[in-house]
Amino acid sequence: MSSPRRTPLHEVHESLGATFTEFAGWRMPLRYSGDTAEHHAVRTAAGLFDLTHMGELRISGPQAAEALDHALVAKASGIKPGRARYTMLCDERGGVLDDLIVYRLTEQEYLVVANAANAAVVAAELAERVGGFDAEFADVSEEYALLAVQGPRAAAILAPLTDTDLTEVKYFAGYRSAVAGHPVLLARTGYTGEDGFELFTAPGDAAAIWQALTEAGAEHELRPAGLSCRDTLRLEAGMPLHGHELSTELTPFHANLGRVVKLDKPGDFVGKAALAAVAEQPTARTLVGLTTDQRRAPRHGYRVLDDAGTEVGEVTSGAPSPTLGHPVAMAYVDRAHSAPGTALQVDIRGRTAPVEVVELPFYRRNA
């Protein structure tokens, strides 16, 4: 068995005393000072993440837009250069292979960012799907390290390090820029529920940029942040995770994300017929939020029950919420039990705990 891959920042993480975990074939920092402290830092100040394990895929050429219109559920041809879009790669049955962010860098060049656990699957599928078009596919993951600074003070930390006017960098955008004198693709998307920026940079520049951000962030209480707090942050923000809220057994419509499926775009696309059929009628189960005042948190795979003890759903993600001070969870439940305010129960290792259905997200930052 091969050893897990290491990011260009591995020695930096070691020097910071990180606890590591193996994830998607990578040795990644799980935490530094502690999950709760890092979580609160992102909510109140800023956190600095190493996300180099994500996959970057380039589609370019005269028919790059048409190729991605065919491959993805989004209308990629409608993305303006310099902007980005959240979308999904679905199979012929409408099941979600992965959720993605697509950046249109120029008229004929796109960068697709895939989740680390699904990067190989996405790369293989995209390579095949663009094959019939005048477009070129390339897996360029080795060309990038990826850093993210997230939190309400992210802009104040980054601003002194770049000539780019950050007030002009729109949400879901990607611009060629420079940070601390190094060329980057500067993006503003995020996966924490907070404002923030992603810096796609050459692997050899990653450590210098990390150090520059660390120094600029010292007066703003910036902390390095690991994968553990990233999961509780995205859970509070109601953001789906593949393998939990998204899977090949579920369509975007199940996750209340039918808005990303552009059934009216020109031409056919993979999964269109199946997705069109699902769009015609509500799914049997739908994704909801659950809260409880109990100490123990509902976890992935736990059964959701009605007051008679009948199973009506399943938890997909759950954890104590550091921001809210009580456990929260996302779950798929029967539509008859999905209205906010509905009282349900969760089977937590043989004992039932009361939960209440609430609207997602659990947390929404002040604009």
Automatic annotation (TrEMBL):
Record SUPFAM superfamilies: Aminomethyltransferase beta-barrel domain, Folate-binding domain
Function: The glycine cleavage system catalyzes the degradation of glycine.
Organism the protein comes from: Saccharopolyspora cebuensis
Source organism superkingdom: Bacteria
Pfam families: GCV_T (PF01571), GCV_T_C (PF08669)
Designated name of the protein: Aminomethyltransferase
Keyword presence, Transferase: yes
Keywords linked to the UniProt accession: Aminotransferase, Transferase
Keyword Nucleus: no
EC nos: 2.1.2.10
Any one GO MF annotation of this record: aminomethyltransferase activity
Family recorded in the similarity comment: Belongs to the GcvT family.
Gene: gcvT
Residue stretches making up the Aminomethyltransferase C-terminal domain: 285-363
Record text on subunit structure and interactions: The glycine cleavage system is composed of four proteins: P, T, L and H.
Catalysis performed (reactions): N(6)-[(R)-S(8)-aminomethyldihydrolipoyl]-L-lysyl-[protein] + (6S)-5,6,7,8-tetrahydrofolate = N(6)-[(R)-dihydrolipoyl]-L-lysyl-[protein] + (6R)-5,10-methylene-5,6,7,8-tetrahydrofolate + NH4(+)
Residue span, GCVT N-terminal domain: 9-265
